[in-house]
Structure formats: C-alpha cells, structure tokens
Design brief:
Elements (H helix, E strand, L loop, with lengths): L3 H4 L22 H11 L5 H16 L3 E5 L2 H13 L4 H5 L10 E5 L10 H7 L3 E5 L7 H5 L6 E7 L12 H10 L4 E4 L8 H5 L3 E5 L10 E5 L12 H4 L2
Parallel strand pairs: 2-3, 2-4, 4-5, 5-6
Antiparallel strand pairs: 1-7, 6-7
C-alpha cells in the first residue's frame, strides 16, 4: 500500500480536536466507503439518482424533501437560489432583468462568520443580498424584525461554534419571527448531530455537512419543507435540482 505521508511529505496527525474541516473532517466508515465505491464503478441517470436518493432520505427523516449536494456551502447557495427564484435557480442566478426583486436575506451580524469562506459569500452566490441584523455581540428578535421589508426573501440562522453565542436570539425565536412575517427560515447546522431535531421544530430549510457528524465523504445535505410559509407560490430548494 502506498505510504501517502512519505509520497507527499505530509505530517502525521493525531486528531484530538474532533470533526474539524482543517484536519479533513471525519473518518469515513467502511459502509460509506463501499457505497461510494459502488457509485464510482456504476452509471446512473443523475436526475433519477438525485430525486430518488433525496426521497429516500426525506422519508427516513420524516420531512417533505431532501437533497444531497456537494457540500454544506453548496447547500446555502442552492437554498437561497431556490427561495429567491421560487423554484427556478436560473432566475436567481441571473438577476438582470430583475424578475425576482425579493432577494434580501436577513442574517444576525454575529452569525456572518468565516467557516472557510464567509457565510455572505455563499448567500450572494445564490443570488441573495445579505442584510445584517443587530450587532456583532448581540441580536434580538426585534433586531431581526426591524430589518424585514417587501424585499426580504428569508431569514438565515447559523448554529455553529463559529457564531457568537452570548446575547443572541435562539433558533425558536428566529423561527417565530420568520413565520410571523410568512418568511422561511434557513438554518445552517453544518456540524450538528441531530438530523431530526430541527425538522420537529418546523424549520423550513436545514443544511448539514455530510462529512462531519454524518461521517460521509465530502458532501452536504439540504432538507425540510418543499414549500415555505410564504404559500404555495413559493416553491423552494427542492425544486432547484429537479
């Protein structure tokens, strides 16, 4: 077996930190390696694979829809694009002429963190315009609510050790503000462990990293409601890949 440490002159690492991106995230278990090997040695109609694996995962989680993407970062862009474009990512990614003007994504200022890239970069990649609420060290439900206007597309919340913890509104409070104004809540929970917790809370769109607690290869998982509290005309992320 090739000694890649020697071949590429790499340091030997003892990981005492856990599932850290800078250390290659998690170890991939044998079951995941076998599934990936099967995928690497067979062909599929990719749309069919995307739809049916998403349906399978959604059923397991007890949610309306799910979608496997390249990474949690990609999931941010996909979710934002799907919400802004009401199911059509093309209108979200190409804003001229501005067919969809509701592009503002409200984010607590203390949640606009850099996890390898700033949250705002991926939101903007999805066609969103970041509006920060509150202060770097404090954000209340009232701070979020005062930023809502006719151009608001969604509220965005980051559940992460990177984000400011003290004096910040809770996920439940953010959800209540969002639904009070018939807006979806997007939750970046990339490194969290409980996949069903936020479904049970009623969060509209949840983003997980496939390579952290799930212990899969580099990937992301987007799941939640196929339609948001904004009503049946607002088809969201589940339609983006279909």
């Amino acid at each position: 077996m090739t000694d890649y440490y020697s071949t590429y002159d790499l340091k030997h690492v003892i990981n005492a930190s856990g599932k850290m991106t800078i250390l290659g995230v998690s170890k991939v278990p044998e079951a995941a390696i076998q599934a990936q090997q099967f995928g690497d040695t067979h062909f599929f109609e990719m749309k069919d694979l995307t739809d049916k694996t998403g349906d399978f995962i959604a059923k397991k989680l007890g949610t309306e829809g799910a979608l496997v993407v390249n990474s949690a970062s990609a999931g941010i862009a996909e979710a934002v694009a799907g919400i802004i474009g009401q199911g059509s990512k093309y209108h979200a990614y190409h804003p001229f002429p501005p067919r969809y003007t509701k592009r503002e994504i409200i984010l607590p200022k203390g949640h606009n963190v850099d996890y390898g890239t700033p949250e705002e970069v991926m939101i903007e990649l999805g066609g969103g315009q970041v509006v920060e609420a509150g202060y770097a060290n404090m954000c209340t439900p009232e701070h979020v609510e005062m930023m809502i206007n006719e151009n608001t597309a969604a509220i965005f919340y980051v559940k992460s050790h990177h984000a400011v913890q003290k004096s910040m509104l809770t996920i439940q409070e953010a959800l209540e503000v969002a639904h009070k104004h018939e807006l979806p809540l997007i939750l970046d929970a990339a490194a969290e462990e409980d996949l069903k917790k936020y479904v049970d809370m009623g969060v509209d769109v949840v983003l997980f990293s496939g390579a952290k607690a799930i212990e899969g290869p580099a990937s992301g998982l987007v799941f939640g409601k196929e339609r948001t509290s904004a009503g049946p005309s607002c088809r969201v992320w589940a339609s983006v890949a279909r």
